[in-house]
Amino acid sequence: MDPTKPAVADKEDDDRTGRIARRVLLANVGVAAAGSLVVAGLALTGRGAAAYQAPPATPGHVHSGASPTPSLAPGKTAAPAATDHDAVHKAVTAAFPAKTQGQGLQELPSRVVDGVREFDLTCGNVRWEVTPGQFVDAEAYNGQVPGPIMRVTEGERVRVRVMNQLADSTAVHWHGQRVPNSMDGVPFITQPPIKPGETFTYEFTASPFGSHMYHSHHNATEQVGRGMLGPLLVAPRDSRMDPKYDKEELFIFNDSLGGLTINGKGFPATFPYTAKLGQRIRFRFMNEGTQIHPAHLHGLTFEVFARDGYPLPAPFRCDTLNVAPGERWDAIVVADAPGVWAFHCHILSHAEGNAGMFGMVTALIVSS
Question: Per-residue b/e over 66-79, b at no fewer than 16 CB within 10 Å?
C-alpha cells in the first residue's frame, strides 16, 4: 500500500460502510424491521437513540415482566419503576452508527511551491454534533473535529499558514516533530501569540517519520479540549521502514469536547471500522485528552510496532493498549476472524453504563 494514500474514504464508501454496519448490527440485536434504527416501544426521538432520556438507574436485578401495583397509603408515593436495562442497551446499540452533522479527519489539500509543501489552516468556531442532537460549541481547524489530516514525507520542507479567526489568541505546536525552536508554537517562549485576525507561518523539515499530531499550545486545556487538534502523518523516506498493510485507520481519543469521543464523535455516532477477511489494518492511536485511555479490541490482536512515531526494537502483541495523553501508538490488526468486534476504551465508565454503551465505543466489522 502507498503510505501517502488518503485514509478517509469518499462519501459513497462512507455510506456503504454505514449500511453494512447497520445491517449486521440489526441482525445481531434482533430488530424485526429491516433497516429501522428504532426498537418498538421505546421513547426514541427522530434524532436517534442518544437523544432519548433513559429511566433512572435502579440497583439490583433487571425485571423481566410487569409487577402488580400495590395499593398506597394516603400521602405515600409509588417507588420508581425498575429500569429495563436490556431494552435501553438494545436501543442504543441498534442506533449504531447514528448519523450526525460534520466529519473530522478530512484530507488537507497541499501544494508544492519551489520545493516546499504548503498547507493552510484556519482556526475558527463551529457548532459540532457529537451524538445525535447533542451540539457543542467547538473550536476547530478548517471547521472539523479532529482537524484535517496533514501528510508529508520525511525530509520534506513544510510550510503551514495559520489564520486565526477565533476571538482568542492561539498557536500551533507540532507534537513529535524536531522543528527549529522558533517554530515550536509555544507563545511567550518561542513566538508571540497569533492574535485574532492575524496569520502566522510555520516552516520546518518533516522529521522524524511516523504518527504525530498538531494542536494548540495557547489556552490549551480549553482550545485542545474543544477540538483544536489533528494528525500529522509523516511517511518514511524509505518505505521499507513501515510494515505492509492494506488499510490505514486513525483512532483519536479526546475527553473534553462533548464528553468522551473517538475521532470527534461519541457512541452511537462513532463510525465503525471495516475490513475484509485476511486484510492487514494499520491503526494509528492518538490521545489528545487529559486521561489515560486503554484501547481494547475484542476477538483480534494488536501487533504493536511503533510508539510516538519511533519503531520499537521489539514489536509486541496485545489486545489492550494503554494510550496516555500525548502518546501515539501504531499497531497492525490482522482481520482473521469474521464478525462485529467491539472496540472501546477499557475504563468501563468511559464506555458503558446502565443506559447502554456510550462515549468511547465503536466496532471493527470483518466481513468474509
Answer: eeeeeeeeeeeeee
Q: Could you write out the DSSP letters of every residue in 10-42?
A: -HHHHHHHHHHHHHHHHHHHT-SSTT----TTS
pTM above 0.85, yes or no: no
pLDDT of 258-315, one tens digit each? Answer: 899 999 999 999 999 999 999 999 999 999 999 999 999 999 999 999 999 999 999 9
- Check residue 257 and give its pLDDT: 84
Three-state SS string across 133-192, please? CEEEEEEEECCECCCCEEEEECCCEEEEEEEECCCCCECEEEECCCCCHHHCCCECCCEC
Residue 41 binned pLDDT confidence (cut-offs 50, 70, 90):
very low
Query: Which distant-in-sequence residues (6+ apart) come within 8 Å of 230 by Cβ?
Result: 105, 141, 146, 147, 148, 149, 150, 213, 214, 215
What is the average pLDDT across 196-204? 98
Percentage with pLDDT > 70 across the chain: 78
Q: Are 4 and 108 in contact (CB under 8 A)?
A: no
Beta partners for 41?
none
CATH superfamily of 111-237: Cupredoxins -  blue copper proteins (2.60.40.420)
DSSP state of 302: E
Cell of 62: 433487571
Backbone angles phi and psi of 146, in degrees to 5: -60, 170
Where in the chain are all domains bearing CATH 2.60.40.420? Answer: 11-27+241-367, 111-237
CATH topology of domain 11-27+241-367: Immunoglobulin-like (2.60.40)
Residue 238 grid coordinates: 524509505
Q: Which residue has the higher pLDDT, 351 or 48?
A: 351
b/e sequence 193-211, b meaning 16+ C-beta within 10 Å = bbeeeeebebebbbbebbb
The enclosing H or E element of 231 equals strand 229-235
State how far the alpha carbon of 145 is from the alpha carbons of 49, 226, 261, 270, in Å. Answer: 22, 9, 10, 13
